[in-house]
Amino acid sequence: AEKLFTPQDTRAFSERDWIEDRFSDADAQSTVMLNREDSSTNLLDKAALLEAMDLYDLVVSIDAESGERGYDLRSCATVFWRETESNPADRCQKKGILAFWDWNRTKLEADDDIIATVNSEVKTDCCDPDSRFASLPAVAAKLQYTGETITQVGALSMAFYLESSLNRKSRDDPHARRLESRFAKKLRRARWEYFENPKPLTSWGLGKNASSAFDFDRAFINAAIIVIIVYAFFAIYDGRRP
Questions:
Q1: Overall pTM surpassing 0.85 (yes/no)
Q2: What's the pLDDT score for residue 227?
Q3: CB atoms < 10 A from the CB of 45, how many?
Q4: Distance CA 46, CA 181 (A)
């Protein structure tokens, strides 16, 4: 979008502004994929889940702009559907298996039956444990069953949501971008016992990768057109009858 020019006084801009004024901008999403190539390793093991909690603590510790912003109440997207006068929406929106224990290390350590917790009929919501419901397949993959019970998991994902206020022209939020950049760098440098090469994905990073891919294709197509023109010139040109 930043490479295209559209007059600011057009109907398209006015309608977009009207929608964003009433429904706000979309949240920025930062996700980390946790995988284990060794299929014999079960990520429902308590030690593996405690390591996932370590990763969660690492993300929450990330900050930017001299500590003014972070993946917490300073700049997270809050749970708007729980907000009332007596119960303000002070929970940060996030999604992951740790929601079964309310993102609380003490509750996870005290749980003596992990399998029963994640297979319970009433499942904790991934964003707010007090309101909605979610299932384990929404936050885990490479599932193995014993009957109807999930007994083994080979991959996990955790997502964190940031408030986003997009610039009218660039369609970018520099504040969220700074946090997302630190998110990606910190997780790529992290080393874990149970997880192999955590893969961080961010809204800004995905957009940047897509833009870079288009830039390469554009240069490739332009070069190809030049080659075609040069070839056509020499194929058609006759030195005796120019």
A1: no
A2: 95
A3: 14
A4: 30
> What distance in Å separates the CA atoms of residue 236 and residue 227, rounded to the nearest whole number?
14
Which residue numbers in the chain have pLDDT < 70? 1-6, 8, 17, 20-26, 39, 80-90, 121-134, 166-171, 204-213, 239, 241-242
Rounded (10°) CA dihedral 199, 204, 209, 210: 130
Count other Cβ atoms within 10 Å, centred on residue 64: 21
For residue 195, what pLDDT is reported? 85
Cβ–Cβ under 8 Å, residues 92 and 72: yes
CB 32 within 8 A of CB 157: yes
Q: What does the alpha-carbon distance between residue 31 and residue 200 come to, in Å, rounded to a whole number?
A: 6
Buried-state track 174-191, b at ≥16 Cβ within 10 A, e below 16: ebbbbbbbbbbebbeeee
Half-sphere exposure of 188 (CA within 13 A, CB side): 9
Number of Cβ within a 10 Å radius of residue 102: 14
DSSP state of 25: P
Angle between helices 174-189 and 46-60 (to 10 degrees): 140
The pLDDT assigned to 105 comes to 92
